[in-house]
Amino acid sequence: MIGLIRVITFSDVKLINYHGNLIRNKYNLSIVSECIKNQDKGIHDDVTERKAVPKIIDLGKRMADSGCDLIIVSCAADPAVKQLRSRIDIPVIGAGSSASLVALANGKRTGVIGITEEVPAIIKETLGVHFQGYLRPDGIDNTNDLLSKSGQEACVQAVKQLISGGAEQILFACTGMGTINLKDILNANHIEVPLIDAVDAEGLFASFYSKRN
């Protein structure tokens, strides 16, 4: 069993399980999902990340103690991933590092879009010389803003701007972009470069490191 941690608080079970279901359907993995408490806007800056880290650590430890054989932290900033790895003896997968490693596989210049003021450090560090640039779409301050039509249109414009600036592929530095199926939105807008979804990427690495493998 894989434990997936959502870093935003939901009461709707369907929303809690959304990322897990995407991964389950694509990679045929057994996943249980839980969200941290009192984090209604998720992680979108240093303050909200610091607030979330101890909650993620506690939840990850509880999931490991309950029998999970792998933990996914479904957030592109990889919050608490290093800390969890030092505290539990099962694999801990972060969305941001997973997406970045997928991007490195073809060596293309990678444009990144996200919801934070600056690109998540784990993504920029992992991409290294392949990092082309970062944009936060206009009007996007947290993951909930991605749900609106205007937020999704802003994502399309940001991607087009990154491509115009030389990006050969696009990495989504927010797992909420998987929630809104941003890949499909961009494809419908004739974006033809490779698109790297962090939820898809974390599922890929989870499928490799799970005990089933």
UniProtKB/TrEMBL annotation:
Q: Name one Pfam family in it.
A: Asp_Glu_race
GO MF term list: amino-acid racemase activity
Q: Which domain of life is it from?
A: Bacteria
Record's protein name: Hydantoin racemase
Q: Which organism is it from?
A: Oenococcus oeni (Leuconostoc oenos)
